[in-house]
Amino acid sequence: MTILKHLFSPIQIGCMTAKNRLLMSAMSINFGVDENGYVTDQLTGYLAARAKGGAGMILVGGGGVHPTGLELPGLPALWDDACIPALKKMVDAVKPFDTRFGVQLMHGGRQSYHDRKVAPSPIPAPAVVKGVPKELAVEEIAELVSSFGDAARRCRDAGFDFIEVHGAHGYLINQFLALNSNHRDDQYGGSFDNRIRFFLELLADIKAKAGADFPVGLRINGEDYIEGGWTLDDALRLAPILEKNGADYLHVSAGVYGSKQLTIPSMYVEHGCFVHLAEAVKQVVHIPVVGVGRIKSPELADRILKEGRADIVAMGRALIADPMLPEKARAGNLNAIRPCIGCCLGCIHAVLALEPGSCVVNPDVGREYLMDGDEKTSQPKSVLVVGAGPAGLAAARMAAMRGHRVTVAEEKGSVGGLLRLAAIPPGRGEIMDVIDFLTREIERLGVALRLNTRLDEALLDQVKPEAVILASGSLPDMPIIKGLFTTGMDLCTVTEVLEGKITGDRVIIIGGGQAGLVTADFLAEKGREVAVLNRKRHFADEMSSNDRFYLRERLKRDTVHLFKQAAVKTFTDDGVVFTSAGNSVTLEGYDTVVVAEAMAPVRDAKPMLDRRNIDVYVIGDAKTPRNLMLAQSEAEEIGRTI
Predict the structure, then answer these.
(1) What is the pLDDT of residues 294-328, one digit of tens each?
(2) Beta strands 576-580; 566-571: pairing state
(3) What pLDDT shows up at residue 2?
(4) What integer is the mean pLDDT of 343-362?
(5) How far is Cα 299 from Cα 45, in angstroms, rounded to an integer?
(6) What percent of the chain clears pLDDT 90, i.e. is strictly above it?
(7) pLDDT at 569
(8) CATH 3.40.50.720 domain position(s) in the chain
(9) Any idea which fold 382-475+600-641 has?
(10) Which residues are catalytic?
(11) Which distant-in-sequence residues (6+ apart) come within 8 Å of 432 by Cβ?
(12) Are 215 and 155 contacting, i.e. CB atoms less than 8 angstroms apart?
């Protein structure tokens, strides 16, 4: 019997019973539809994998109810009956796994990525999406009301168990609700009752067309976290009205585009960050309430339920990272869960760039329909992996899963490589969850891990590898800048700083990428004054926008000075002369320079391996320094193909 008894107890939602209280949130993944917007095998495979993993309820993300409201181009279209056959096929693939399967209905309003945007008022979104939306006429509002009901009926005809209506996150319904986005002076604007009218009308239309016995959940904001936006007091006033009008559950979230708390927070934000809003709403209704917000731990989910703060817990990114999370948790195998690290790079950043969604720690996202497990190789080999950073460990894991005999040699006394250092700055500790998971995995799979072991001829003679995966990583590259090597200031690299080898109080950082900014945060937290010189126009553009937002907020201190488009003229004994966006700047009285710019691959061992006539695969930073997502994907692919 599972120890997480609250999470894995059934729950009644209207006339529907779910086997457990874990809801996979609707997420706009931006893949798996054809040119007509009808779902394909790709999206079906992605969702079926999560159903197989044991989630009690799963939602298809971002179903567009009307052409004007398609948030992203790669989302399902639900505005004509021709979508039903593909949806039925999807339902048939998911139903055998005994999960309750639903669709989230939404209209993006002014937050839609196209030039036909409509909204209650002609007010642009405060961030992300550009363009002034067209103000809806009353007859157009009636058309949209009807489109929600029609879409719900199509979902029921396709065999779905329930739907959820997206009334949060600054999309169309939320735009009607909030005073800062609704400046109408007719029956849909002004008073509270007028602003909620659109929501109540579409709910009534759904009930009339899909049937009173078809469960309908509603996602609402507990807080918009933006000036003039929807508040918790508003939500507490609305929730009983929604219950009275037929809502079967309420899913309480927060934030809009441009809010001070993002709808999808990064690793800087505490786990369970929006649960207090659900807890408050739960006090004023009798229907089930869903809590959400950076919940990736089954133990936390169970505790939220045990404490009565919510009736259902929603997880999104955690189930992208590991579709088998529910089953692993139910079986008590918590250490085997592949962790979401809250980086927002594949799941959010890629999608907002209008690219297919993916995941830093799970390269299989979007490829589930092409895969049928990792079959054992018929020709097991002796494989030597050089380097126990994230790429080396991921490749070793995959090769071992396929049946190869794997040895990992790491010249340092610990695993993790540069990722261990990347986890040191404030708020970045979750990065090490990747290394901890991979370390447990290679131990489980019987991989021989040799620390403090350099690659040399003796090691090759001993292991006798038939294939070598060179994952030896990278080191900071020193730029050639006038005065840098003759300055009176201490000169060190970003890796040396994060290892604690710095004593200066006033520090100049060369490089405004992720490494430079997190190092600036690390030093500022320790009381240092920091100036960051970034050659580029934008800071840390390799980070996801969500992750970078919180980091930039942390750097808004008097002791941190950020300069972009910096062109250094010369370093002096105690400072630097440069231009920033064309303006001349001189910094004086500094004692340390930190190089945190480019990285150079380390692959010195390649010639030795070539002389041995061994198959050699160079991966990760040893091939080309880049982000963790690309390195992990490459590592797993090599592990599969050896």
Answers:
(1) 999 999 999 999 999 999 999 999 999 999 999 99
(2) antiparallel
(3) 61
(4) 94
(5) 28
(6) 96
(7) 97
(8) 382-475+600-641
(9) Rossmann fold (3.40.50)
(10) 171
(11) 416, 419, 420, 423
(12) no
Model confidence band, residue 1 (pLDDT cutoffs 50, 70, 90): very low
pLDDT, position 77: 97
Ranges in the chain annotated CATH 3.20.20.70: 11-370
**Beta bridge pairs of residue 449:** 408
Sign of the torsion formed by the C-alpha atoms of 16, 20, 21 and 26: negative
List, for residues 362-383, the tens digit of each pLDDT value.
999 999 999 876 679 999 999 9
Say how far apart CA 539 and CA 260 lie, in whole Å: 19
Return the DSSP state at 33: B
Please state, rounded to an integer, the average pLDDT across all residues of the chain.
96
User: Residue written as tokens 């201190």?
Assistant: 557
Which residue reads 């198959």 in tokens?
Answer: 615
Q: Which two tokens stand for residue 493?
A: 């690299």
| CATH placement of domain 490-597 | 3.50.50.60
Tell me the one-letter amino acid at 92: D
- Token pair, residue 130, equals 């550009």
What pTM, to 2 d.p., does this model score?
0.95
Task: Give the domain 11-370 fold.
Answer: TIM Barrel (3.20.20)
Instruction: Please list, in sequence order, all residues whose beta carbon lies within 8 angstroms of the beta carbon of residue 18, skipping any fewer than 6 positions away.
Output: 10, 11, 56, 57, 99, 100, 312
Cβ(35)–Cβ(21) under 8 Å?
no
Range(s) of the chain covered by CATH 3.50.50.60: 490-597
What confidence tens digit (pLDDT) does each residue in 222-275 have? 999 999 999 999 999 999 999 999 999 999 999 999 999 999 999 999 999 999
Give the Cα separation of 586 and 588 in Å (integer): 7
Q: Which two tokens stand for residue 609?
A: 């391996």
Strand pairing category for 100-106 and 529-533: unpaired
SS3 372: coil
What Å distances lie between residue 416 and 7, 386, 387, 516, 599, CA to CA? 33, 13, 9, 20, 17
Angle between helix 197-210 and 138-158 (nearest 10): 40
The per-residue pLDDT for 450 is 98
Residue 406 · residue 503 · CB < 8 Å:
no
